[in-house]
Amino acid sequence: MIEPFVPQLVYIEPDALEYALGRQLKTKFEAMGIEIRETTSHNQVRNIPGKNDLQKYRNAKSTLVVGIRKTLKFDTSKPSAEYAIPLATGCMGHCQYCYLQTTMGSKPYIRTYVNVDEILDAADSYMAERAPKETRFEAACTSDIVGIDHLTHSLKQAIEHFGKSDYGKLRFVTKYHHIDHLLDADHRGKTRFRFSINADYVIRNFEHGTSPLTERIKAAAKVAEAGYPLGFIIAPIYLHEGWEEGYLKMFQLLDEHLPEKFREGMTFELIQHRFTKPAKRVIQKNYPMTKLELDEEKRKYKWGKYGIGKYVYQTDEQEAIQYHLHHYQEQYFPEAKIEYFT
Fold first, then answer.
1. Burial class (CB in 10 A: 0-12, 13-18, 19+), 58
2. Quick check: helix, strand or coil at residue 82?
3. Where does residue 88 rank: exposed (0-12), middle (13-18), buried (19+ CB within 10 A)?
4. pLDDT digits (tens, 9 = 90+) for 174-226
5. Does domain 9-341 have CATH number 3.30.420.10?
6. Where are the domains of the chain?
7. Which end of the chain has the lower number of beta carbons within 10 A, N or C?
């Protein structure tokens, strides 16, 4: 069983203490006996303990930086939402394929932002620009926000904020089952709570430090019981020996543990495994024994944003993925909707 995340080391930016949440977190971590250091900025975080790069990387993943979000311009977040809402950055999990491997670069520590009211005010401005159109915000683009929210409750505040909005919807995805504090949030059906699920081979080999699949599904039943719209992201869909059987068993397990009454309006999002050349270099440095297949010759090159292309599966492999997973969805969850495959 994966225990809720507790940082081994905390850095606090002085400006963060001007906010109530910053002061609350400092008091909380002091009471927990966690080492706290001051840093003028997250960019100045130095001296992560460790004898070598691998140890420092792992220790950084259990380091939390408490600061403020200075940039309140939101990135786009297609296809899942119109915008990404930045409540946190970084993740405590060790998912070897994760794109945060490159976007976080040499700073794999976790950051939480205490100026939540300012971030939500910025979201309101984006909603006002698009009104009366609905505006969706993705809260898990740069982090697994659920993984730290038992400490911060920033996500819970955002859920209740969007619950009161006229034109806003919130979305996020997690690999963690530590969701009990979110069950009584006044969400008013405006937040879609999604869980990342995968075949056993992928979770066992590439998703270290995350909750087991059965625990994620049990948590999904709890949030559905609490009235949240429910979704699942199957990502990355990874071709391995026996992958058809592996994903079939995943759907069967979901069918076994998720009561029928929670399935109306449920969604699936399908994302195939992909990687970039920079990601490959970082993954092989951080996880030198990885079993991830990262052979460019076996893949198809697809142009990406900012001119950085990615390696995806060949066309016939993508068609096989779509055929099998759509078939499983129709067989076990005909009332659900597949939002996209990418």
1. middle
2. strand
3. buried
4. 999 999 999 999 999 999 999 999 999 999 999 999 999 999 999 999 999 99
5. no
6. 9-341
7. N
